Amino acid sequence: MQRTLVLVKPDGVQRGLIGQVITRLENRGLRIVAAKFMQVSRELAETHYAIHKGKPFYDGLINYITSAPVMAMVWEGPDAVAAVRQTMGSTRPREAAPGTIRHDFALDVGRNLTHASDSPENGEAEIALWFKPHELVQWQREIDRWIFE
Ligand code: DAT
Ligand code: MG
Predict the structure, then answer these.
(1) What average pLDDT does this structure show over 16-21?
(2) Which pLDDT score is estimated for 104?
(3) Distance 91 CA to ligand 1 centre (A)
(4) 115 Cβ closer than 6 Å to some ligand 1 atom
């Protein structure tokens, strides 16, 4: 079982799309492990997006992610990192496949609604950055055996 960090970014929160993102991940069969509605500090934003520092879109990205609250979550499942990114769609919403969240709800790369970790290693690092260990809930879902082979 693999875990990944998911954020509904400020545009998704402001547009009332938290529920739709959660529904799609639930429908997929992924299991929620943690959730926290929060205002992102500049410090957290800069650590989370450190890899993009120096890029032309960096300042806009930091302003965007700190501009309103986000819904931060951890989801798990088999190959959860790849599965969630597949459900999110391409970074550029106008290149995202129909049926993906970014295709169905977004147009601009700077308002692409969600974040999802891009590798298992980054997933674990991002989960540790956004959540304290006791905020991650270990639980058994009754229907797991009908979703996980
Ligand atoms: P992703 O969020 O799909 O993992 P990323 O990690 O490459 O994409 O970039 C992080 C965010 O930065 C992305 O969700 C939106 C923004 N971004 C990326 N490339 C951009 C660009 N060329 N112009 C504007 N914003 C960009
Ligand atoms: Mg990324």
Answers:
(1) 98
(2) 98
(3) 6
(4) yes
Domains in the chain, number: 1
- Nearest-atom index, ligand 1, CA of 116: 4
Please name which of 62, 57, 74, 68 lies closest in space to residue 128, comparing C-alpha atoms: 74
45 pocket-lining for ligand 1 (C-beta < 6 Å)? no
8 Å CB contact between 36 and 135: yes
- The percentage of the chain sitting over the pLDDT mark of 90, rounded to a whole number, equals 100
Query: What is the predicted pLDDT for the residue at 54?
Result: 97
Rounded mean pLDDT of 85-93?
98
- Residues designated as active site: 115
Contacts 24+ apart (CB under 8 A), 81-85: 81/2, 81/4, 81/116, 81/117, 81/118, 81/119, 81/120, 81/123, 83/28, 83/30, 84/4, 84/6, 84/25, 84/30, 84/116, 84/117, 85/116, 85/118
Span 76-87, average pLDDT: 98
Give Dmax over CA atoms of the chain in angstroms: 47
Which CATH number covers residue 98?
3.30.70.141
Q: What is the mean pLDDT of the chain?
A: 98
